[in-house]
């Protein structure tokens, strides 16, 4: 991902990402008390890097994020991108690293979902209104 990433078209997310990047992760890491990371995926159609901010949790050394899309009927675009190309770039605070992202397996999901609803309880409400099972994504460093 050598090109500068294209940030989310959603205005408030783009503002969050800008603050996060410009401060080297010093500002924007916490969002309403929840920790956030930046994930850069490769656009499945464009091939361009796409960056967004997501709330995260931890499972030992792994990072967890949720493809909630606010409980919408469709998965978020970043999730479709990582299904097509699981190699991603992640920024957590000041640390930037390459990683591989994948949906949690059916066996993993219940425990990881519980972890993530502990971090951001609103996910439970999103799941109640969503006509799909909201994926939990596991991110593992390629270091």
TrEMBL record:
Stored Pfam families: F420H2_quin_red
Protein name: Nitroreductase family deazaflavin-dependent oxidoreductase
Organism: Nonomuraea guangzhouensis
